Amino acid sequence: MRKFMTLLLLAMCLSAHADEQLIYQPLNRDSQLSQAQWQALWKATVAQGGKTLIVQWTAYGDSDFGGAEGWLAESLRTAHEQGLQLVLGLYMDPAYYQRIDELDSAGLSAYWQTQLGRSRVQQRLLRQHWKLPVAGWYLPMELDDLHFKDAQRRQALFNQLQAFNRRLDAPLHISAFSAGHLSPAVNAAWLQQLAGLQVQVWWQDGAGTGRLPSLVRQQYLAALPCAIGVVREAFRQVSHNGQAFKAVAATPDSAAGCHPSAVFSLRYRPWAKGLLTLSGN
Asked: What pLDDT, in 10s, does the model give residues 195-247?
């Protein structure tokens, strides 16, 4: 009986730390990998418990990573062949974070409308030309409680996402992070409102960026409804404000209770070492 309980606890522990949902952030330099290397990477991901690959974007500014016949599309076909479901990211403006810093409420709303239009175009391209099996769509524009501190901004965003989501043919995913500008309770209510659109909302745990003290992060986490997923950051940022982002790999925090769990990102996981170079390196 004691041996059985030990094995059961070990299985539970392994399950809690499995990378069942893993985020991959494509970078142009990843094009250097051969098909054999991609196959080995995806095979190792599945062996580590991977079931779903969330691709952060499939178009970044002017880059579409080769399009339907390019290296990214080909590698994702290989990922699916190895058994991974695909949640495909849409369009990302490289100037997104700069632009939302500069805009007032009306400007931000107009900007979001334009970017959602570009993501809609990308979604059609992915369906018609890339022809990958799609389990969901991921919107790369992250939400935060500074730029959406104002309730009217949050309502305008809700209305736009509601209209956008109605035109999709698979579940929409979006992520958010906390910088201490909304209380844990208000933040949780906001994310729950977005989840009510039948959107999978992900909250980044902030362990990697370290913007907030650990105790404060735990308060935000504790306030979240179970439907909100938690992105466990598998890195530690070593760059400072004003510097180019740089991070090192780190062990992500344990899976958080009742919440869906994902790990950011594939690039920082041990089996990707030597294949995918780290961000900022």
From this structure: 999 999 999 999 999 999 999 999 999 999 999 999 999 999 999 888 888 99
Q: CATH topology for 19-272?
A: TIM Barrel (3.20.20)
Q: Do 265 and 232 meet the contact criterion of CB atoms below 8 Å apart?
A: no
Q: Are 23 and 266 in contact (CB under 8 A)?
A: yes
For the chain, the structural domain boundaries read 19-272
Q: What would the two tokens of residue 7 be?
A: 């094995």
Q: Dump pLDDT digits (tens) for 130-167.
A: 999 999 999 999 999 999 999 999 999 999 999 999 99
Q: What is the largest CA-CA distance in the chain?
A: 65
What angle (nearest 5°) sits at the alpha carbon of residue 41, between those of residues 38 and 42?
A: 90
> Residue 29 carries which DSSP code?
G
Picking from 232, 241, 236, the residue whose alpha carbon sits closest to that of residue 18 is 232
Alpha-carbon gap, residue 49 to 73, rounded angstroms: 23
pLDDT tens-place string over residues 18-52: 799 999 999 999 999 999 999 999 999 999 999 99
- Identify whether the C-beta of residue 135 lies closer than 8 Å to the C-beta of residue 149: no
Report the distance separating Cα 63 and Cα 89, nearest Å.
13
